[in-house]
Amino acid sequence: MTKNRILLFLTACGLGWVIYFALILLAPWALAAQDEPPGISHPIELPIFNPHASSCSIPSGLTRTLTYVQENEREFLEGVNYGLSMAAKDRGLNYNRLVVENDVPTAIHQIQAFLNQKGGALIATSSNPDAVSSSLQHAIWSGAFVGTIVPPPATLLLNAPQYATGKALTDAAIAHIKSKLGGKATVVLLTQDTMQFLAPRFEAMRDGLSALPDVTIVADIAPSPVNSEGGFTTMNTILLANPDIDVVLGGDAVVLGALKALRAAGKDRPDQFLGGIDGEPEAVSEIKKGDSPYKASIALSSPVFGYAMGQYGADWLEGKSIPQAMNILPSSLTKDNIQQYEADLANPSKVFADPVRRAAYLTMYGNTCYDTRDQYINFPWSSEKNH
Length: 387
Prior knowledge:
The chain is of the alpha/beta class. The chain is 46% helix and 17% strand. The longest helix has 33 residues, at 3-35.
């Protein structure tokens, strides 16, 4: 054999042995994964949660630890952290928050670390839900409580009625266009259509605005990343071609970034309508000014549902029955109703303890516990498909 042929032969043999040993080592794990329950993967209608359902087994071998793998530090997710930390304190859970700054491999690594440490309750958000779904399934199979915000899989999945959420913001914008702008407007939609679970909120915006003949959507685009910086950069680009904008709609974080761009360019006006979704504190501060272009935010009250998730994580670890899904009810914030909203966000434990006040923010569906963990939600659940 020539030198090159010998090298090729040895390389081929080496690769073959690598593949062989990889199959030997990974085959048991792969077979085990195939034997694990896939969860409820087809849409079903969930009944209203029964808080009096029978308790079941207490998970064994897991620590009383609540871990939050946090996608980034935008204010909406910081609100979740606030609620979770309060619930952990109230229920005697060790609390860990791990911010991964939109880095998916880091998120997967942190979820694996949670598994290695026999963690009991996990809340995870990610900029790429599909990439972390397998890791979340392994956490569920371990017997841990797993909560997610919008994408599956989860033992407790949270979602908002996305179309209704988008419609609430659009209705407020349309009322402003008719009363303050004479029915005419140039509009920018800062979307999150790249995440299929949120797409209905932007469908609602397009549906509502298309009914107004003198409204023109000059940009319909998903900023990247989905934060204030992404909104600022995207809006700067839009202003190069369309310097006179009347309406900007999207998530609070990106619309706040767009507001910064408008102000930097001297293109902000008191009669503009900027509105977002999430009820972030900076958006609330803008609305309270009264003369800001930021006129409305559709609140999803992240400290309140974060606190609820933490409570149900603790219940799971004590063998109690918890909801399979939780509906986050949207509420339109204006300068007239912000005071009560801020009081509730500051003290989510008080909201959770009051059934009437809690019902203004959350509706629970289905029942599950450690013994029925094979029935975890593994489809994009929405209350809008329940009715």
